[in-house]
Design brief:
With 304 residues, the protein is an alpha+beta fold. It contains 14 helices and six strands. It has a domain at 5-92: TATA-Binding Protein. The N and C termini lie far apart (46 Å).
Length: 304
């Protein structure tokens, strides 16, 4: 007997699902973890079980089909629907950002090229926090290998698509247990600290809390510095209201300057932040569009 459950994911237009699939196909943290051929096939973890899911277009927006290992109750279906909608940013209203971008003559062509693009986040803030640690001073291929090791040992899989663990899946691991999977003392200690910090933490609370409160909480976790906190806030929680980093030589600043060059020409850090400030609490969307442009428009200069 099938346990599959189907629900509708309403979307806030404009929403171009093909751009979502194109972005995910080349997104380094998730390469090899999903199918993106005309639909999204992926897996996640909830309450100790692996749930595969498929997202397809339909006339109402997007259709989500859940494939659990065990029957889901109503609360679990709602939790998964909300998680996957948040992951795909289906409810993000781009109108305030678009109104600002339309007044930016240099940026206006980018807005047109990426019309309807809602950048996917990570499935959970915990996953993005772990990824931020794994990629510190580490080649992407090795970081992906470590991430997969965590999923294989303590997550699950559906149709060969790995599901990254929830904090509860790793709750009983000691620091040495983590080190056995991620044989790097600094990273294993940080991963253990992140796992303990995220126990029982709700994504909705991190999204709703004051920005500085969440940022300070993240910075208080061993292994989370300024860049990692910003990455988690922007890519895991959709907190687009700030971008600025203090370090003048930060990798994020250099990557953003490189992404901005085809649009604005060479910018000093101060010129870059001045442009970002014009976007107010939408500046994260501005950075996302600059950095995603090369992935979505193949002929453009790479920002990576």
């Amino acid at each position: 007997m099938s346990r599959a459950v189907s629900v509708v994911l309403p979307v806030t237009p404009p929403f171009d699902f093909q751009k979502t699939l194109t972005f995910l196909t080349g997104f380094p943290p998730m390469q090899g973890e999903q199918g993106t051929g005309g639909e999204l096939r992926k897996a996640t973890r909830l309450d100790g079980q692996t749930v595969g899911f498929v997202v397809r277009r339909n006339t109402e927006g997007l259709n989500l089909t859940l494939h659990p290992e065990r029957p889901l109750d109503g609360a679990q279906v709602r939790a998964l629907r909300d998680r996957i909608a948040f992951f795909l940013a289906t409810d993000v209203d781009l109108a305030p950002f678009s109104a600002l971008a339309d007044r930016d003559e240099a940026f206006r062509p980018v807005l047109k090229e990426l019309h309807g693009f809602h950048q996917p986040r990570f499935l959970t803030p915990f996953e993005v926090a772990c990824w931020a640690i794994l990629t510190q001073r580490q080649p992407l291929a090795q970081a992906r290998h470590m991430k997969l090791a965590l999923a294989v040992a303590h997550g699950g899989a559906w149709e060969d698509h790995p599901a990254f663990p929830e904090p509860a899946d790793l709750a009983d691991l000691s620091e040495s247990d983590v080190h056995a999977l991620v044989p790097n003392e600094r990273k294993s200690r940080a991963l253990h600290a992140v796992t303990q910090a995220f126990q029982g933490v709700r994504t909705a609370d991190l999204v709703a809390a004051p920005y500085d409160e969440v940022r300070n909480w993240l910075l208080g976790i061993h292994g989370i510095g300024e860049w990692s906190a910003l990455f988690i806030l922007l890519r895991g929680l959709g907190r687009v209201e700030r971008l600025r980093v203090a370090a003048p030589d930060s990798a994020f600043l250099q990557e953003l300057r490189r992404a901005a060059r085809p649009v604005y020409g060479d910018l000093t850090p101060q010129e870059l932040w001045t442009l970002a400030d014009r976007y107010g609490d939408q500046q994260g969307h501005w950075a996302i569009y600059l950095r995603s442009r090369s992935a979505l428009i193949p002929h453009q200069e790479s920002a990576a």
